[in-house]
Amino acid sequence: MGTVNETKRTRSFSGYLLAGVIAAVLGAGSFFLALNYFTYKRSLSEVIVARDISGSSLTAYRPKGPESFTNIPLAERVTVVDAAGKKLTLESLELGPGKEKVVKVRVRPDGKVVKIEELPSSFTATDEIRAVDGDSITLGDRRYAAGEALFLTSGKGQGRAGLTGLIGEGDMVRVLGHENTALLVEVVEKAGSLSFVSNVEGARVFADGTYRGKTPCTFRISPGTKDILVRAEGYKDLRLPVTVEPLKETKVTVTLERVTGTLKVTSNPSGAAIYVGGELKGRTPLTLNVPPGEYEVTAKLEGFYPKSAKVRIVQDREQFLSFTLAKAASGVPGGSIRNPGDVPGEKVIVERTWPNLGVLEVKDPRGSLLRLAISENVPLERLPFGRISWDRVMPGEELVIETDPEGNLKKATRIYAHSFSTEGKIMFREGNKIFVGEGWTECLLRDDAIVHSGTVDVPLETLSVGDTVAVYGASPQDIRFVDLEQTLGEKAAFEGFLVKTSTGLRIFSDYSLTWFTVPNNLQVADPVARVTDNPSRVPSGSRLRFYINPVGDVVWAEYVWKAGASLEGRVGLIAGASLHVMPGWQEVFISEKTSVFLDREKRPYYDVKVGDLVLAAGPSGDDIRFIWVEDRLLYVRTGTGFIGAKDPRGGRIFYELPSSGQGEPYPRLLDTKITFSYPAQRKNLSLRELSWGDKVKLFFDEEGRVVWGEVVEANEIKLLGHYLGTQDGFYYFTGFSRFTPGENIVVIGLSEGEKLTKGSRVFVGGKGNIINYLEVDNLVRPERWVLGTVLSVAKGSMRLSSGQTVQELKVSKDAWFCDWNAREDGDLLKLFPGDRVSVALGKEGTVLYVERGYSPPFKIEGSVTYAQGRVITVSGKNGTSTIVIDSGATVYRGGQKVGPWSIQKGDKVKASGSSKDSVDLVVSGW
């Protein structure tokens, strides 16, 4: 018995000794950890530009340090993590000249780097500098502070003593930075400059679609070949490629051509002086390039009566004008009637014939009308020889007649006979030019052309579109006689816009919607294409010239301009004179020339609003002349806020921000049928396509219904995960994603007095590295915290050793763990026996959230293939290892606490400790 008691005392003494040793070791460890913690707390963090790693130093630019790259010593062990918190090796950073990275480093008091962390908010951009303003630079549409940036040219530093002289507008640069701050600016290529002069002062110059100034102008621009557009009112656009070289000025002289039509003038006799608008332009035959418009043209020739005519010039088209001048009489007033016997052998023009009555009416060169009796024995000769009967003579043909002293016709010779004729409807008329028949035969009427309507002579001006005629002359360009066979009658003309509406085709005048109806069989003449269209084929919004009869019927129409652009839809965006029409988001431009109608009445050209349902039409998208606002959204107020997560009822929640800026967001359930415009991306989105955190603007009617929605700013972050906590002013979430809270961050889902707690499941929204929306999906509300060591974790449960007790705890489905030291987080199933944790428990003792403070360096899981005392061999998916279980280790087998030598071959174990030779926890059977 004594032996037994002695043994007990020895074991007891040994236990006390072991406990003392462990306490000493733990004390030393605590001191070591405390020292490390103290050192860690004294370490400094800074954002730098890392360029290279060479040996035991990091080459970097420190914004707070020298104005160049310097070497920073590296500690013996350096922790490297990427932007998501994942551990990396130093080699994987892949640094080098041209491959610099913006990183955050932690530097010990001895000046050595112990940690390098990639930043999710860092950026690299290569673009042209749009502006330099003080210590700021603008690239594209983003502005960056650059007061602390290091500037490089050809890889060499240029310092940071302000931006003047270092860079300028148009330079192509590579910029590295963090958030909205540029830290490294490398000049890739210096800008050149373009200098423009033109024959039109004030012509607008565009380079690659961007407005740069009015001629004469000079501007800096990045090198390369640029697409240049020069534009001026009343002149043709000029587009040309121009190559810009670095540090060189390229001078460009531009000659713009006026927008013109061609006027070709002839006269009989030729050599007449031609006046256009009272200004002498030359003598016939004459070809002029004239700006579009209406002009009065006058022909003057000494010894002849002057003649004038009005002509309309159309862009890029030819207009023909022919004058037949009458010789001025000597001593006899022009137009007086003379006896044909006074001028024997005189040339006359046939005006009308009555062969059955033996009467011939002619006009002499002085314009006098003569009626001659034709007897059967008076021959009618023809050139070059032969005779013809009098019934074959037509108006407009020319004769030489001889009369006796009493004025009787003795002889006649036909010296000119018509050799061309055609018939059909007059499709279009411009001055003396008419287009006849379905083939649109172009005919030019002489000023002295004879026009008969039955037995009546009618003026040349009587001929109008829609009339059916037969024309005769020497050629299509020399028409001398027109037989008006059928006419649409007296007509009045006005211009208007033909619009397709739900009730049929309607006409808008320049002032309002008219009451005129458009018959289905109406012919619409297209003088450019030389065809006729059915009204249903006319592009909606085209401008036509309509002809109406005395009772108000539209009997004919012709294009003034055909709509090359005819768009119908809601206006999604207005930017100056630019409109974007949904659903295709085509961009069109309006001006003071644009006629805008709201319902039936005309409005100012600028009275177009976002959300209007419009028809926009014009000769082109750059020249919209007509807008009909078919429907204007009737709303009484707007509200701005954020789209929340999906509602259980199938809709979406909109959290409206108070207009005063004070108070809580107000939730509204939205119907999923709402469509939103997204002006920034030029597209439409359904409510289902929106993400939580998208900032939108809604338009409400009197009953509070949403009549229009617009995406103000789309959420770029779209993070659904767990909140891990804050550090250094940053919010951390799943994956250790780090963000800066916005100045006006909106937090949804917290009641009054509640705070966002670690482990809570959240929806996060924002842009770049800034979050402006946070919606709590599941708030962790811990009742108490417990400390312990993880023994096992299974789905829905975990075992925790706390002191001398083992607790089996239920785990909530959203439970999450976080380890700030290792920058690791995830599902609780990733925890391993031996992890020391702090556990947040809910009301029923359910695990809500776990923070891991320590994780053993050595871990192994597998089956025991060899066991001898405290030495066992474990084989698992990561290989085979022989481990030594500490004599004081905690060992569980089959749910029971056993000695360190109790593990047997075939057991499945999880073991952890400081190393494979010092395992202090083994769990088997849980």
Count of individual beta strands:
76
**N-to-C span:** 40 Å
Question: Tell me about the biggest sheet?
Answer: 7 strands, mixed
Structural class: mainly beta
Strand content: over 45%
Low-confidence stretches are 1-41, 329-344
In round numbers, the mean pLDDT is: 86
Overall 3D form: elongated
Helix content: under 10%
Total domain units: 11
Please give the count of helices: 1
Radius of gyration: 48 Å
Strand order of the largest sheet: 9-8-7-12-13-10-11
Topology:
Blueprint: H1 2-42, E1 44-54, E2 57-61, E3 69-81, E4 87-88, E5 101-107, E6 113-118, E7 122-133, E8 136-139, E9 142-145, E10 150-153, E11 156-157, E12 172-178, E13 181-189, E14 192-198, E15 204-207, E16 210-214, E17 217-221, E18 224-231, E19 238-244, E20 249-254, E21 261-268, E22 273-276, E23 279-283, E24 286-290, E25 293-300, E26 307-313, E27 318-324, E28 346-354, E29 359-363, E30 369-373, E31 380-382, E32 398-403, E33 409-416, E34 420-430, E35 433-436, E36 441-453, E37 456-457, E38 468-475, E39 478-486, E40 492-501, E41 504-508, E42 524-526, E43 531-533, E44 542-548, E45 554-561, E46 565-575, E47 578-581, E48 586-589, E49 595-598, E50 601-603, E51 613-618, E52 626-631, E53 637-646, E54 652-656, E55 666-670, E56 675-678, E57 683-686, E58 695-700, E59 706-713, E60 719-727, E61 730-733, E62 737-748, E63 761-767, E64 770-778, E65 784-794, E66 797-802, E67 805-819, E68 824-826, E69 836-841, E70 847-854, E71 858-868, E72 871-876, E73 879-893, E74 896-898, E75 908-915, E76 918-924
Parallel strand pairs: 3-6, 10-13, 14-20, 21-27, 31-33, 36-39, 42-45, 49-52, 56-59, 62-64, 67-70, 73-76
Antiparallel strand pairs: 1-2, 1-5, 2-3, 3-4, 5-6, 7-8, 7-12, 8-9, 10-11, 12-13, 14-17, 15-16, 15-18, 18-19, 21-24, 22-23, 22-25, 25-26, 28-29, 28-32, 29-30, 32-33, 34-35, 34-38, 35-36, 36-37, 38-39, 40-41, 40-44, 42-43, 44-45, 46-47, 46-51, 47-48, 49-50, 51-52, 53-54, 53-58, 54-55, 56-57, ...
